[in-house]
Structure formats: structure tokens, C-alpha cells
Amino acid sequence: MSKVIASAAVSLDGFIADTDDAVGPLFDFYNNGPVEVYGTDKGRPFKVSEATAGYINSVWPTVGATVIGRHLFDLTNGWHGVPAVGEHVFVVTHEAPADWPFPDAPFTFVNGVEDAINQAKDFAGDRAVSLTAGNLTGQALAAGLVDEVVLNLVPVVFGTGIPFFGTYAGAQVLLDDPSVIQGTRVTHLHYRVR
């Protein structure tokens, strides 16, 4: 059965972007090392430290599907029809785009985070489902749908912005101690939800 992994680069004060949706230095670690790694788009290499490459290469290939929100879809234009990681993207939205220029891309538009996660798990089979941070992660965590949490912790303080768990309003959730991998300008913290 698939596990659901909520993951993002995050500031020390818990933000995945500033209030203008800019990630600033949060993604610098994707381009600060000598080792090339790839997500689904083989034309877009990332150059990371050896430690980060080892971590990414142990996690990304296990992802079968990704669940994102409509806001991220719009910001990235759905990565021009190529999933960032995994083979299929499930987009949580109340309304599918009418004029997206990649109608045959492996993207499914779903109304509701629980339905999107269930469809992604069915698609992924025994592979993982990646869930983007923000309100979706907060909703999924409150519903008991998140198995693991990954903070790619970057040494920066934003002061304000978009929180990793969005506007989480659920009960307290305990996590196991993390596995910790120290990259260059990033610390990968991988937690299992108890």
C-alpha cells in the first residue's frame, strides 16, 4: 500500500514561500553542488551536494504520484505537462483549467484532498505518493492521511510567509525522531507520523 509523504523546502521559521509566493533561497540547494540528479523531467538536472544527491536518489524514484493544489499548478503551469516527480499528478481544485495547452499530460483534476490522495494511492500502487506542503498538507494531516513528513530545512528566516502546514487546525500529531541528512545549505529531516 502506498505511503503519503508531505515534503517541501522550508525556512527555519516554517515557511515554504514568502507572502508573494517567492521561494527565495529555499531552492538554492538544488543548484549548489557537483552531483546531477533528476526528477521526472530528464531535461532539467539539479546540481546538488553528494549527501543531498544520495537522499534524493533514495526517495524520488520511489514516488509514483504527486498531489498538488491548484495554486501550485497555476504558479508552475503544471511544469508544462511533465510531473516534477512521479508519473502522474493529481491536482486538487474546484475547477479544472479550460485552456491548459497540455491536455494529454498525466494530470488529473480532483475536487477534494482526500479523493485526490485516494486516487493517487490507487495509481501509485506500492510506490509512494508525494504531497506538496501548505494547506493541502494541513488538511491531509488533520484527516490522518499523512504517513511521513519531510522538511528540507534551509538556514534562512523569512519572518512571514506560507506555512508548511498551511492553516492547520487539527489535533496534536506526534512524529518519530527524524532521519537526518546534512547537505550543503540544507538539512533533510525525514519523519514518520506516529
TrEMBL record:
It comes from the Bacteria. This is Dihydrofolate reductase.
